[in-house]
Amino acid sequence: MKLKWGASTDVGMVRQQNEDSYLAEENLYVVADGMGGHNAGEVASALAVTTLKAGARTGIDSVERFRELVQQANTAIYTASLDDSTQSGMGTTLTALSIVAGEEPRVLVANVGDARTYLWRNNALTRLSVDHSYVQELVNEGIITPEEARVHPRRNIVTRALGIDRSVVVDVFSHLVRTGDRIVLCSDGLVDEVSDADIAVVLGQHSDPQDTAEALVMVANTAGGRDNTTVIVIDVLDDISEPVVLPTPDNTTPMEALAPMQLTPAKKSKVGMVLFWSALVAIVFSAITVIGVYGRSGYFIGFDSNDQVAIYRGRVGGILWFQPTIETQTSMSGEELPEDILRDVALNREFSSSSQASKYLALIRIAIIDATTTTSTTTTVR
Ligand code: MG
User: Fold this and answer.
1) Which range (42-51, 156-165, 197-206, 334-343) has the least confidence?
2) Is there a single domain that holds both residue 217 and residue 88?
3) Which domain does 212 fall in, by range?
4) Residue 345 lies in a domain
5) Ligand 1 midpoint to CA 131 (Å)
6) Which region among 43-47, 122-126, 186-190, 240-244 has the lowest average model confidence (pLDDT)?
7) 328 within domain boundaries
8) Are residues 15 and 162 in the same domain?
9) Rounded to the nearest whole angstrom, what is the distance from the C-alpha of residue 198 to the centroid of ligand 1?
10) What pLDDT does 8 receive?
């Protein structure tokens, strides 16, 4: 199999630093999008790339091997974040592609987070990876469309990332490839600014992969460039085997797709643990209670139809005919909330009692006041 590839990365039009890292080599292609203060995002994404690069020397020819390597990258970042307090809580999303030669050449696509791998074939663009993001969960549940997801105010909340926890669930997909295929790996900086339809147009306008990668980055910047953008374009040139695609993920289960947020900052981890144990207690309780009681027990926080914070009684999504009802309505909107609380609300944090939910609501109010006070103090100093 003969490949030709090009890659381009850019800080964009708004940010000061490029926290994306990438690798484009004969058999391994990686895009990692780091996050964390004090340059930690760059450290996290670079660690992901170097770990995979080192591991690839012995080959990545199986789903298991690829998954193991991504786990190693997770461990490397997680350990580094524990060793250096300035890097606490750093993480990175990752999409990576390994070429497996043979009679039926194929690619393995590993994915954690919302960087993406696409296949461009016969002028049609399809996604080879599935985002681990809040909006993807809404799409999966049929609440919003993929196009609505792209412009959703909470589109940047990822539900999985490397380095946040001791271990991570890694998707690995296997696809057969053929001559004429064009594969694109990119960070969310591209897809937040450019629709899949427009990406497809650009892919059709350029034949050289390097030109194409640069053109895609330019289009993202022209559309606003609000994030770092990284693009790798790989063309499959040789005539190879029968054209068959196997787009089925080999490991993702609905439960994994709905795994709890892993991006909770270290500062909030105690709250996270409390909520986790509360949820566990609620689950044990429900197991020994009739389903009707279960359906009406428990509370969770979320946004109502007017996008205002509310405490609901019942279960997220409802159970059978027991639908959640609003217990406490507030006038707080998503825009007022600090990032970490916004995630809690968006992901419907659960509580085992009304008083726990009320306490959490009080915490949010304090956090908003703190944020406002900090802002006004800063303004005064200036
Ligand atoms: Mg990004």
Assistant:
1) 334-343
2) yes
3) 3-236
4) yes
5) 13
6) 240-244
7) yes
8) yes
9) 19
10) 98
C-alpha 34 to ligand 1 mean position (Å): 7
Distance 93 CA to ligand 1 centre (A): 8
Separation of CA 357 and ligand 1 centre (Å): 33
Q: Is the pLDDT of residue 28 over 50?
A: yes
Our count of domains for the chain comes to 2
Rounded Cα–Cα distance for residues 121 and 99 (Å): 17
Q: Amino acid identity of 355?
A: S
Determine if the pTM surpasses 0.70.
no
In this structure, the answer to whether residues 7 and 100 fall within a common structural domain is: yes
Report whether pLDDT(329) > 60: yes
Measured in Å, residue 114 CA sits from the centre of ligand 1 at: 8
pLDDT tens column, 233-261 = 999 997 544 444 444 444 433 333 333 33
- In angstroms, what CA-CA distances link 192 with 218, 219, 223, 227? 14, 11, 9, 8
252 Cα: distance to centroid of ligand 1 (angstroms): 23
pLDDT of residue 350: 86
Distance 188 CA to ligand 1 centre (A): 5
Q: Which residues are close to ligand 1, an ion, with C-beta < 5 A?
A: 33, 187-189, 227
Q: How far is the CA of 242 from the centre of ligand 1 (A)?
A: 36
Rounded to the nearest whole angstrom, what is the distance from the C-alpha of residue 164 to the centroid of ligand 1?
16
Q: Ligand 1: distance of its center to the CA of 95 in Å?
A: 12
> 253 versus 172: which is more confidently predicted?
172
- How many A from CA of 362 to the centre of ligand 1? 32
Ligand 1: distance of its center to the CA of 232 in Å? Answer: 15
